Amino acid sequence: MDYYENIVIDYLRADRALFVNTQCCLQLVKAHNPDTSGRHWYCDAVAADFRSHTVFLCEISYGSQLSALCKRLKDWQDHWKSLVDALKRDCYLPLEWPVHVWLFVPKHVVSLLEKRLSRIGNGLPLNFIHKITELENVQPWLYCSWDRTAEADKGGIL
Question: With b meaning 16 or more CB within 10 Å and e meaning fewer, what string describes 60-76?
Answer without folding.
Answer: bbeeeebeebbebbbeb
